[in-house]
Specification:
mainly alpha, 4 helices, elongated
Length: 122
C-alpha cells in the first residue's frame, strides 16, 4: 500500500507547489484511483467464529473509508480557493493514515487466522 500512496502523499504535502491548480486537482484524482481499487480489493476472507466480529469491523471500517475517499475525491475538483484546497489536502492526508491503519488491522486479522490454523494459540 505504501507504494500506492507515496506519490499521492507527496502531492498533498503543504510545501508542494500548486501553481497550476487544475493540473494538481487531476493529478490527485488520478492517484486516488489505485488507493480506492486497493481498498475494494482487500477484504477479509472467511473467519473462525472468534475472528468474525473483528472481520465485520474491518468491513464496516473499509466502507467508511471508501465513503470518505469518494467525498474527498469530489471535493478536490470543486474546492473554490487555495485555502479550501489546503483543507481538502489535509483531510486526504489524514485519510491516507487511516487507510494505512486499516490495512494493518486487515493484515493482523489474517495473521491471527493463520496462527489459529497452525496451532499457535494457547
Amino acid at each position: 500500500m505504501t507504494a500506492t500512496t507515496q506519490t499521492l502523499d507527496d502531492l498533498l504535502r503543504p510545501g508542494h507547489a500548486r501553481d497550476n491548480v487544475g493540473a494538481w486537482r487531476w493529478s490527485v484524482r488520478r492517484h486516488l484511483v489505485p488507493v480506492r481499487d486497493r481498498l475494494l480489493r482487500d477484504h477479509p476472507d472467511r473467519r473462525e467464529a472468534w475472528l468474525s466480529a473483528r472481520a465485520a469491523r474491518t468491513l464496516r471500517e473499509r466502507d467508511e473509508l471508501l465513503a470518505r475517499l469518494n467525498s474527498l475525491a469530489s471535493q478536490v475538483l470543486v474546492a473554490a480557493n487555495l485555502a479550501d484546497l489546503d483543507d481538502v489536502a489535509d483531510r486526504l492526508s489524514r485519510l491516507l493514515v487511516d487507510i494505512a491503519h486499516h490495512h494493518q488491522r486487515v493484515h493482523d486479522l489474517a495473521w491471527d487466522d493463520v496462527e489459529l490454523e497452525i496451532g499457535g494459540s494457547e
